[in-house]
Write a structure and sequence with these properties.
The chain is an all-alpha fold. It contains 7 helices and no strands. It has helices spanning about 30-60, 70-95, 100-130, 135-155, 165-185, 195-215, 220-245. It starts with about 30 loop residues before the first helix and ends with a helix.
Length: about 240
């Protein structure tokens, strides 16, 4: 009788590998942090801009009658809130690559320009009426410069952003102020000649800044390069990390 052959043992190529459980998808931590930093930055910037609006209204309603310490405290709080939101926005855009927040900042920049334009027109009205003292004059000038400073900071948050369209409304209002100066000091009776210094100072500052914005000669380039340099190392490391993945 022939001997039955024993089954051949299974060799490794024929062994069925065990079924691995499905791999869980990792949470997109970078995207989550991008959204969180954007929301935090939006909250801080919005609160600081609303607070600045209330501060400007108080100044026009003789809010400078209070103590100097109280005014400085308000300015410190508003400045800290804006700086906190500005840094958070840069982190969201430059480090975590948020693509939505630059669009929001663009809207904020136009809102800021509108607020500066309204403030400029209101100051022209005050200068024309000549019912202000030295303290209020310097407060008007500092508020205008503060509004333009906020606009420039928002401009620096966005890459390849053009300030030239923002200069056009300011130039138009500067021409309106020049018309108001001519009417006040040429056609009006008994104007206060000492107030002309205030008119020319505001006009000179605003027309100079508007012209520089319109010429686009790269005055803000060092500031932009400084901001880019703060995040250049981290951005490069993020790109390398993404390529390794």
């Amino acid at each position: 009788m022939t001997k039955l052959q024993e089954p051949l043992p299974k060799v490794p190529p024929f062994i069925t590998p065990p079924v691995k459980p499905p791999r869980k998808k990792n949470v997109d931590v970078r995207g989550l942090l991008s959204i969180i930093t954007m929301l935090v930055s939006m909250a801080a910037l919005t609160l600081s801009m609303l607070g600045a609006t209330r501060f400007v209204i108080d100044v026009f309603d003789d809010g400078l009658a209070g103590s100097l310490d109280g005014l400085l405290v308000k300015l410190v709080v508003l400045g800290f809130s804006f700086f906190f939101g500005w840094v958070g926005g840069l982190v969201s855009i430059r480090i975590f690559g948020n693509l939505v927040y630059p669009i929001v900042i663009q809207i904020y920049a136009w809102v800021c320009l509108f607020a500066v334009s309204v403030l400029y027109i209101k100051i022209i009205q005050k200068l024309y009426m000549q019912k202000y003292d030295t303290l209020h004059f310097w407060a008007y000038l500092l508020m205008l410069l503060g509004g333009l400073f906020v606009l420039i900071c928002l401009h620096l948050m966005m890459e390849d952003h053009d300030l030239r369209p923002f200069a056009i409304p300011l130039l138009v209002i500067s021409v309106l102020q020049l018309c108001a100066i001519i009417i006040r000091y040429v056609f009006e009776a008994d104007p206060n000649g000492w107030k002309l210094f205030g008119d020319f100072t505001i006009f000179g500052v605003m027309i100079s800044i508007s012209a520089l914005m319109l010429m686009h000669i790269g005055i803000l380039s060092p500031l932009r390069e400084w901001v880019n340099g703060l995040f250049a190392t981290r951005e490069n490391s993020n790109h390398h990390g993404n390529s390794e993945e």
